[in-house]
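User: Structure tokens for this complex, please. No commentary.
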Amino acid sequence: MAATDGERNHQTGKLEFSLDVPFPSSLEASIALRSLSPDREPRKGGISKHLAVTGSTLSVKWSADEARVLRVSVNSFLDHLTLVMETMQMFGPPVTQ
Amino acid sequence: MTVVIGFEGSANKIGIGIIKDGEVLSNPRRTYITPPGQGFMPSDTARHHRAVILTVLKEALEQAGLKPADIDCVAYTKGPGMGAPLVTVALVARTVAQLWGKPLLGVNHCIGHIEMGRLITQANNPIVLYVSGGNTQVIAYSERRYRIFGETIDIAVGNCLDRFARVIKISNDPSPGYNIEQMAKKGSQYVELPYAVKGMDVSFSGILSYIEDASHKMLSSGQCAAEDLCFSLQETVFSMLVEITERAMAHCGSQEVLIVGGVGCNMRLQEMMGVMCKERGAKLFATDEQFCIDNGAMIAQAGWEMFRSGQVTELEDSWITQRYRTDEVEVTWRD
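Assistant:
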């Protein structure tokens, strides 16, 4: 897992954070993406989060107005990610259709 | 043969149940219990659920003697409820549905209670009193909707009981309501409380404020005992619920009442409702704590009905929602 910390983008004036999570396969990375994507951020505005899969890596990018809001979102995402990865370890690997 | 696994975790209970054509194969559950005087907060409750959910899932499969391949559909609570706990449960449901290659189905929690009550009691077309820590509704089925005839205009009846339990520092183990019920049996003096029925609706927040205030004054001066207050609170709020249920029965011409939700396992409520039903020549249906209190099988059962009628939830539409009214769901599985 690799992360770059909250650096301020000088063009937009926003705090940015990005995270790369390696998975055993691209299928597992895609499952994680689809499990973690449906729920919207609880608060309106002030933060945006984008998830994408490249190969077997799940990449997440945040853009926020305040560090406090960014911290809450990243913290809760990491809790969710941990649960999804534990679920995969206990109840995987995925069946291939 | 259709096998559905149901995931529930909208409040302080986390449960996973498996249903095979009306038969409950397994239904393990854990409850997040807070110290006396404290309620359960969303983030702490979600942490509790995250810590135990995979163990509960393992138990559900083992007790049912099933492998993931035997399951036809993965149902989970879409709402209503607390956001953080709902997300926790939805995450695991989405992940296993994909790992196992099974369709996903988002279920309305209230519909889960109703369908589980109907399955267990075999009530055909009852007036439903749904009473819990988060919901208080009188419901009747008509034209493909569970229609809300009356409801609370502020807090749920169970929330009123839970918060009173916190005021007088009653244990939350196994539940505050259960402990109030036990104490109420020893109460003898009725303390008059406000009675707040407004048409078909009820209100509990004023009663709670009143009894909070009264308990501080009356208990310190020895005018009454905590047991008397428990007794008085139950008698008052349950009378209100029986009144609006009876009015809904008269309106619909119904001869059946089904009580569901966590407060529904209160024997005094069942007794009072039973008296009213007897007077009207109607039949009362209720279940015990196993199925009244939030559990996974109820989500599996509603999911079973929905799945058999052709519904599924696409992953991108599987977001949870804290507000989700009972009458928003089109009932595709009943005539």
